[in-house]
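Data availability (excerpt). The following record was deposited with the supplementary files.
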Amino acid sequence: MTDNQTVQAHIDAWTHSIEAISELLAPLPTDAWNRPTECPGWSVRDVVSHIIGFESELLGDPRPIHALPSDLRHVTTETARYLELPVDKRRCHTPVEITSELEYTIIRRSRALRNARHQPTDLVRLPLGPQGEEVPYVELLRKRVFDVWVHEQDLRRALREPGNLASPGALVTRDLLLSGLPLVVAKQAGAPAGTTLAVEVTGPVEFLRTVRVDADGRGTADESVTLAPDARLTLDWETYLRLACGRVRPEAVTDRVHIQGDHELSTRVLANFSLTP
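Predicted structure:
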């Protein structure tokens, strides 16, 4: 795909996921809004509030004036504080207010994306803190697809409404997570030079990647098959997602991860599998 086609594909994937969230919430009873999700400290209401807050900031809306409580134990970093503020501000909002704001935000953001004149490589602000960071426009869109789709799945698990595990957003997420797999193996897990580790994922999104650590300690991943890797991990797509996004600890899903070969190396890799803050 060309860069412009990639931009449009990302917009389409974002639209698919955020509209799916809106549809998921429409029939929700009031008590379901307080169900906990796998995001520490966040309920269903909080996850939706986060999405609204982030998209609103991308639209240029001013951040709410609000003082965070001092007893939020899940808020441990400055980035977390930054992201928590628009969430906590909405904790007193009713489900009707939240769903209405989400629908209005989707309309506004969709219009802004249609009318955007950014080139794929133009630098734009990604608001992950007071200063944010400058990223290419196409990368901002990719990260918004990732964030919205992953939170769609957070909501689906909390509400026991599975779906869209192989949607366009899932494929964008797969590629983003796989781009970090060599770092997990070579750096975070400290795999020695010469190591090969195969990761096989089954289910709605299937793939096989082999990570190799070169003599300089750098990792690379490709689709080639190694007959005798040092270790091999086999797991389903949803478990891969939950581990890579820090939603669950490896010891909680031992029945869903099959290890072959070097068990100690595999355990280190799984312990460092999360790529999200």
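Summary of structural features: The chain has two domains: 3-164, 180-271.
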